[in-house]
């Protein structure tokens, strides 16, 4: 059969190998190019360029999102790194497999080259109980035995032969977690050194990903408590004493399936007791792992790890950029802080915009309307987690001395492409605002997506303060220019007149938002109420001084107090 136009030759270059892998994994999962485009927030033509090898994904965050969406267990990420490093010459499958090392990069490259040269499809490695690695051909569902010694871990995240999981996942935790949350990757360390699983939490558009070490133990429920039991107290204490981010997970057998409960390692240090020679650790049942608690773990750990990593450099940069506060208008690029990671840039932009608005607010001639650009849980969770955001909301409410409105533009395609845990984070951020008397309003019209973040006194004056999805770290201004003020005034009035969540009460607006986000109202109230009674810090504790649990706990407390009846 002749070669089709734009057909890939994976042996030609690393870019072609990556494109080939993306296409084959997408096809194997029954996804169209448009499906993948929607889940990775890009255009159909961008996916085409990825797959034909013309232009690989532009940044690591995008590759991580593709990898998680396709369940590639890190293979696509490693191939992308190979492009940046400069790839090696290809080889035939018989040569490649014989020389594969324990790195994901070489294994992924070997698999893509093997698929190209022998026509056997895309192979995914899985280790059987006897140590043999099985290569699963995703398109033919065939199994090829590739001998021993290829790789050092059992990786959960792709379809896995049942025999390779049972012995290494006695509670079914890895299977359950990776099937529930796309992009979560779990691996067994070898040797284990007191760690049952390494967990790699996915990043996002700006988030960089995070890592946990976990111990999983059998548990039982007594009243509203989960009691984890471990025969080796020393192993548990040594695990909890380490300064890394650790998580204890209790597995409660509910008759054929397990339910899982998590406790932050530092919080667990004071919860250890002994009962008849067995080490026990107690946690509230409110810490059951579901979309609410996973979303909080995901967001807090991502923001916390990134901000802690850049702590000193971020403090120095903030001091260096303080001179911009004397200006009524500024637009600062990320190149002004070249050594900082993307989350640090987010924090700087958010902090500067908050202080800019607080300085300008008293000078506005009339009660203003606010417009915010957050659309997904990743962006909106900053309201819950960044240390300055909750105080900023309280200060603006106090400064206005009256009820205010805050408008969002969240088109339906954004809702459809957002995982449930991110939609819950968005809901909680809005609930936090409603708890302070801020009336949240929503439009689904994508024509408003490009509108910058603003505060406008209708027909008179506007404050621009944008850090979300902007070209730089921030863009701020105070302007009376008629064209700008008119644009913002019209946008605010349009959403006020036709808000898809319009209702006379906060509970009514939040109920309408939950419906739009496809979230169960009664479940939200019940779970938030449970979590509010214990606080989120026992689930995941922040290390960075720039991260706070106050916003999460306040939002959960408020939602938990709302009526469930119609």
Structure description:
- By secondary structure, the protein is an alpha+beta fold.
- The protein is built from 21 helices and 19 strands.
- The chain has helices at 14-28, 33-40, 44-51, 60-70, 75-85, 93-98, 104-118, 173-180, 233-241, 265-268, 291-309, 311-320, 342-360, 377-385, 389-400, 412-417, 420-435, 482-498, 506-516, 521-534, 550-560, and strands at 123-127, 132-137, 143-148, 155-156, 185-187, 197-201, 210-222, 225-230, 246-253, 258-264, 272-275, 278-284, 330-332, 369-371, 404-409, 438-443, 454-457, 461-466, 474-479.
- Strands 4, 5, 6, 7, 8, 9, 10, 11 and 12 form a nine-stranded mixed sheet that branches.
- α17 (420-435) runs antiparallel to α19 (506-516).
- 48% of the residues are buried.
- The model is unreliable at 1-5 and 87-167 (pLDDT under 50).
Q: Report the strand count.
A: 19
Based on helices, strands and strand pairing, what is the structural class? alpha+beta
Report, as a whole number of angstroms, the end-to-end distance.
63 Å
Radius of gyration, in Å, reads 25 Å
Count the DSSP helices: 21
Instruction: State the shape.
Output: globular
Low-confidence segments, given as residue ranges, are 1-5, 87-167
Largest sheet: 9 strands, mixed
Beta content comes to: 15-25%
């Amino acid at each position: 059969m002749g070669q089709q136009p734009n057909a890939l030759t994976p042996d030609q270059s690393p870019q072609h190998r990556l494109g080939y892998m993306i296409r084959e994994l997408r096809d194997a999962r029954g996804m169209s190019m448009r499906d993948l485009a929607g889940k990775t927030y890009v255009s159909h033509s961008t996916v085409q360029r990825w797959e034909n090898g013309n232009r690989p994904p532009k940044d690591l965050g995008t590759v991580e999102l593709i990898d998680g969406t396709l369940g590639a267990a890190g293979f696509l990420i490693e191939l992308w790194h190979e492009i940046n490093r400069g790839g090696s010459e290809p080889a035939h499958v018989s040569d490649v497999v014989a020389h594969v090392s324990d790195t994901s990069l070489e294994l992924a490259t070997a698999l893509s080259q093997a698929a190209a040269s022998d026509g056997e499809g895309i192979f995914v490695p899985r280790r059987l109980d006897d140590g043999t690695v099985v290569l699963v051909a995703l398109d033919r569902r065939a199994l090829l035995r590739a001998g021993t010694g290829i790789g050092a871990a059992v990786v959960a995240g792709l379809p896995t032969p049942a025999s390779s999981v049972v012995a290494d996942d006695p509670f079914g935790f890895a299977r359950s977690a990776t099937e529930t949350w796309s992009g979560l990757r779990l691996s067994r360390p070898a040797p284990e050194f007191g760690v049952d699983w390494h967990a790699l939490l996915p990043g996002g558009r700006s988030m960089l990903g995070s890592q946990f070490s976990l111990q999983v133990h059998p548990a039982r429920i007594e009243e509203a408590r989960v009691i984890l039991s471990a025969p080796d107290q020393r192993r548990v204490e040594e695990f909890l004493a380490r300064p890394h981010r650790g998580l204890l997970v209790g597995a409660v057998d509910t008759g054929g399936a397990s339910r899982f409960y998590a406790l932050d390692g530092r919080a667990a240090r004071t919860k250890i007791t002994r009962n008849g020679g067995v080490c026990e650790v107690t946690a509230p049942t409110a810490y059951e792992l579901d979309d609410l608690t996973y979303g909080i773990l995901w967001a807090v750990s991502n923001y916390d790890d990134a901000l802690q990593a850049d702590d000193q450099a971020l403090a120095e940069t903030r001091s260096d950029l303080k001179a911009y506060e004397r200006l009524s208008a500024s637009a600062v690029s990320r190149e002004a802080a070249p050594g900082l990671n993307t989350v640090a840039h987010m924090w700087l932009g958010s902090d500067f915009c908050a202080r800019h608005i607080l300085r300008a607010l008293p000078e506005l001639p009339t009660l203003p309307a606010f417009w915010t650009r957050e659309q997904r849980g990743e962006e909106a969770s900053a309201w819950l987690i960044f240390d300055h955001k909750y105080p900023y909301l309280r200060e603006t409410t106090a400064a206005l001395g009256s009820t205010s409105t805050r408008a969002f533009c969240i088109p339906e395609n954004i809702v459809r492409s957002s995982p449930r845990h991110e939609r819950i984070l968005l809901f909680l951020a809005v609930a936090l605002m409603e708890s302070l008397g801020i009336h949240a309003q929503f439009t689904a019209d994508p024509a408003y997506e490009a509108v910058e973040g603003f505060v406008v006194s209708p027909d008179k004056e506007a404050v621009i303060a944008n850090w979300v999805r902007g070209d730089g770290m921030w863009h701020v201004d105070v302007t009376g220019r008629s064209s700008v003020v008119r644009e913002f005034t019209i946008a605010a009035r349009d959403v006020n007149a036709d808000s898809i969540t319009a209702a006379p009460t906060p509970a009514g607006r939040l109920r309408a938002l939950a419906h739009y986000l496809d979230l169960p109202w009664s479940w939200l109230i019940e779970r938030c109420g449970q979590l509010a009674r214990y606080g989120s810090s026992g689930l995941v504790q922040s290390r960075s001084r720039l991260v706070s649990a106050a916003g999460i706990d306040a939002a959960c407390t408020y939602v938990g107090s709302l009526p469930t009846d119609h």
